[in-house]
Design brief:
The chain is mostly beta strands and about 120 residues long. Helix content is about 0%, strand content about 50%.
């Protein structure tokens, strides 16, 4: 089992920045690719970003490329999502995810482990 706990969400004005954190625990948690999905109001859950076990490989949704950066601290078993130049359309509940196939096939229905979700609201 892998447990994921998110932190760092909140309210920010358009153009601002936030950093989300996801702390993982569990016997095999350090081996999993980890990443982030989000679900906006009335929308389906969508992929945002993912990284492999040591942070050397990353993947981003087109909508966040150049604005968001995913990173991983192996010692702390924590993944971060630095979000810059935020837009109102980034408003969503952000979910941390861990799954062996997350980089190859970042599909919500295939994710093994989810965090509880954290709200990010970007005001215009």
């Amino acid at each position: 089992q892998v447990q994921l706990v998110e932190s760092g969400g909140g309210l920010v004005q358009a153009g601002g920045s936030l950093r989300l954190s996801c702390a993982a625990s569990g016997r095999t948690s350090s081996r999993y690719p980890m990443g982030w999905f989000r679900q906006g109001p009335g929308k389906e859950r969508e992929f945002v970003a993912a990284t492999n076990w040591n942070g050397s490989s990353t993947k981003y949704a087109d909508s966040v490329k150049g604005r968001f950066t995913i990173s991983r601290d192996i010692a702390k078993n924590t993944v971060y999502l630095q979000m810059n130049s935020l837009k109102p359309e980034d408003t969503a509940v952000y979910y941390c995810a861990a799954d062996g196939g997350l980089l190859a096939a970042p599909v919500p229905g295939r994710v093994d482990y989810w965090g509880q979700g954290i709200q990010v609201t970007v005001s215009s």
